[in-house]
């Protein structure tokens, strides 16, 4: 049996005695006809009773000698090492794995292509611009000026009639 969804909160308030008398009377009338709500109210009342009993339970007081015995036991206990075998063994295993699987620290750079004899023979790529700049700033300037003076290749002309296909 299911509890009515709109009655969950009012039933909880009824169980702890926080519901107004008019609402409580209407809810009790509903409880006579609804077994799901009755069961839910019993569960909530049982939980509220257990909470009240837990609050009323006396707090256990330690004996007067408890703290003295605890201090004495702590003084007498041998000191434990901070780094024991439980920490050292996994750290050693990790170090071995890292050493065996690591790559060499020095990786040789990729060889650069041999510089082209003249700037005019170079293909226009970023690498060739970098090579020209490494050789001299004047060489890079000459290369860029030549590229600007060459102009763009002639683009094909398209007309509306040439785009139609039969």
What can you tell me about this protein's structure?
- Among the domains are: 52 residues; 31 residues, no CATH class.
- It is 60% helix and 0% strand.
- It has eight helices and no strands.
- Helix 1 packs across helix 3 and helix 6 crosses helix 7.
List keywords for this structure.
flat, mainly alpha
Please tell me the overall pLDDT.
78
Number of helices: 8
**What percentage of residues falls in helices of 4 or more residues?**
55-70%
**Amino-to-carboxy terminus distance:** 77 Å
Give a brief outline of the structure.
This protein is an all-alpha fold and 166 residues long.
Secondary structure blueprint with pairings:
Layout: H1 8-16, H2 21-33, H3 35-56, H4 66-76, H5 85-101, H6 126-135, H7 137-150, H8 160-163
